[in-house]
Amino acid sequence: MSEIKIILEKEKFKSLKGRDINALLRENLPRVEDTLRAEREEILLEKVAKLEEKLREMEGEIEELREFYERALRDKEFMMTERERLRRENEELRKKVEEKRRELEKVHGS
After folding, report:
1. Domains in the chain: how many in total?
2. What's the pTM?
3. Is position 3 within any domain?
4. Which of 71, 53, 74 is CA-nearest to residue 63?
5. Whether the Cβ atoms of residue 36 and residue 28 lie closer than 8 Å to each other
6. Which residues constitute the domain of residue 73?
7. Residue 101 forms part of a structural domain
8. Nearest to 24, CA basis, from 8, 40, 38, 36
9. What is the dihedral of CA 44, 47, 51, 53, to 10 degrees?
10. Is residue 105 part of a domain?
11. Checking phi first, is residue 104 left (phi over 0); if not, alpha (psi -120 to 50) or beta?
12. Distance (Å, whole) CA 13 – CA 21
């Protein structure tokens, strides 16, 4: 069995002398339980407040990531469109170069 030590001031000890300590403890137990419950509730409310703050921070970070991702998607679309445009342009230039070469071969070859 574990041991509990209670330290009291001398005057308090004298006032309790001769009283039924078990009855006194039983009488005060509901108030002690209420106090402990209130302290626990306060601790839990503080934890909830911290968690809510952390949640707001995380939501802000998620929003920043969402914006970054949306910009990245727009940039990717732009780059793909630009790549396709350059491909077409390159193909047209190849055709023109090929035509010029054929013309030059005809002129020099004849």
Report:
1. 1
2. 0.53
3. no
4. 71
5. no
6. 10-80
7. no
8. 8
9. 120
10. no
11. alpha
12. 11
